[in-house]
Structures are given as C-alpha cells and as structure tokens.
Amino acid sequence: MGLLGERPRDYPESVIKELGSRPDTGPVRQILSLPQGASFVMKSASTTSRRRVSADEALALWTEYKRTNDVQVRNRLVMTFAPLVKYIVFKKVRELPARCEVEDFISCGLEALIASIDRYDPAKGATLEQFAWTRIHGAVLDELRRQDWAPRSLRRWERDISKARDQFTAIHGRRPTREELADSLAISVDALRRREDDISVSDVTSLNTLVISDDETTVERIDTLAAGDERLDPEHATATEEGKDKFRVAFERLPQREREVAVLLYVKNLTLREIGDILGVSESRVCQIHSQLKRTLKQQLSEDALLFSAVG
Questions:
Q1: How far is the CA of 210 from the CAs of 108, 203, 223, 224, in angstroms?
Q2: In 10 A of CB 19, how many CB atoms?
Q3: Residue 23: CA count within 13 A, CB half-sphere
Q4: What is the mean pLDDT of the chain?
Q5: Alpha carbons 95 and 159: distance in angstroms, whole number
C-alpha cells in the first residue's frame, strides 16, 4: 500500500507523455505512492516549452477530481503544481540554516500541496494556485520553525543585528566595531555580546565553517572557541612548571627520613602503620614526621603561595 492508501501501479502513458518522462524517485514518488521504477522530473522554463496551466484548466481538473475522486486525477494536479513547491522552497534556501535539508522541505511542501487540493473551495474566491501557494509557504515556514529550537525573539534580534551591520557598512564602507553596532541598536555593548552569544549557541553548524573574526579575517569557527582545559593555556602551563620546579627544590632540602615518609605515603600509597613497620618506628612517630614535613614545605614555599593557589 502507498503512503496515501492507493496500491502501486504502472504509471499511465498519458501522464508520461505529458511530463516528457516517467515520474522520478524521491519525495514525490513516496508521497504519490508511485512504483519503484517511476521517476518525476520537474522541468524548468529553460528546458521545456510546455505552457503554464491556466486557472480555468486547473479548476476543471480539480472539478473532475472532486466528481470522480480518482487518485490519478489528483496526482495529475499534484504534478501540475509540483514545480511551485520547488520554487517556494528554493526561494527560502538562503534563509535555511546549514543543518536543514532542502529535501525535507520539499517533502513537507508536497504534503501541503496534496492537502490544499483536498481542502480547496473555489467559492472562497481564490484560484487553486493561490490557495496552494499560501498552504505550501505556510507549511515550509512551520517546518523551519519546528526544526529551530531558538525563540522567535532571538531570531528577530539576529535579523536586526544583521540589518544594522549592513546599513553601517553601506554608509561608512567598513564593518562596524562592537561599540558602533551596539550604538546603532541602542543597546549596551554587554547586551549586544549576550545576544550574539545566544545566536551563536542557537545554530548547529560545522566547527570548520569559515567565519569573520573581530579583526575582519577569515578563520574557522573552532578557532574562535575558548578552550575549557586550563592545561592548554600557555600561561597556566608555565605557572605549573614553575611551581613544580620550586616544589622539587624545597623537597630536596627535607631531611632523608621526611622524604622517605613522603614517598611511601604519597607515591606508594601505604598507610601510616605500614610505613612505621618499614621504618621501624611507631605509627604515632610516622604521623609526627608527616606533620613536620608539611610544616617545613609550607614555610619554604610561603613566598610562592599565590603561585601554588593559581595552579591548584
């Protein structure tokens, strides 16, 4: 059974002659429940001289469909207005985020076209093409909003920021600074930065996408992201190495017994009792040695307390 309930069948030769080829595979074949070998070709004005169907002809075909309820007649109407779906979707392509697939919107538009044919009422005064246009365009917008988790207010801010940036560039011949852009929008620089951060987070895109940096150079998006790993920060890495060097020097100054306790406790992970057995002293004595070495290290490294607090 097909998507709309009709059984797959050979496509009529009259329709093949009308199209100039067999209907194609893809979204149209799935929606129209065409057989596996069928194909659908949407010919543009540059590749065919077939004239456009008039409103009266479309109405006559629709009237025949309502009178006979013949699915093939309905499919003929769908194929007549299928290029309209493609035209509307491709007009919206430049507004679609990179995450959106054009084929999804074409399928959505075709479903809206079929629904518009079934719900069309010529008594309302609009032609079938006008009614179908409204339904298809609305369905594409609804699908775009459904796939977008950002609120409309944020998208409105995105349009306003882009418009203000384009207007400034047209007047001054250069891209505005963040301060100039904020002034054009009558908001603070901090508010503009928050809006831009929200807009950036709302878009799902490749990290290798080329973007314009603050100094107007082209960089990959991944290069604009701040690293969350402090180990990758050169300043933090330098401070860590400096702290390790100072600790090694202070540790070498400790008495041998205190160094032995530190190694057995922190490297070998032994208990105080086990360390006492190895050194031949009591557990309480090991505890005293441990306390003494911590006091000694703290005194020797007191001048670098700020450095050690920074590196954790």
A1: 30, 14, 10, 10
A2: 21
A3: 26
A4: 76
A5: 11
Q: Measuring CA to CA, how many Å separate 113 from each of 3, 31, 43, 54, 189?
A: 15, 11, 18, 17, 46
* Tokens read off for 50: 């077939």
Which residues, in sequence order, are CB contacts of 225 under 8 Å at separation 6+? 207
Strands annotated E in the chain? 210-212, 218-220
Residues 6+ apart with CB under 8 A from 116: 128, 131, 132, 134, 135, 136
Instruction: Please indicate whether residue 254 or residue 219 has the higher confidence score (pLDDT).
Output: 254
**pLDDT tens, position by position, 227-273:** 666 666 777 778 788 888 888 888 898 899 999 999 999 899 999 99
CB 154 within 8 A of CB 199: yes
Secondary structure of the chain: what % helix, strand, coil (to 5)? 65, 0, 30
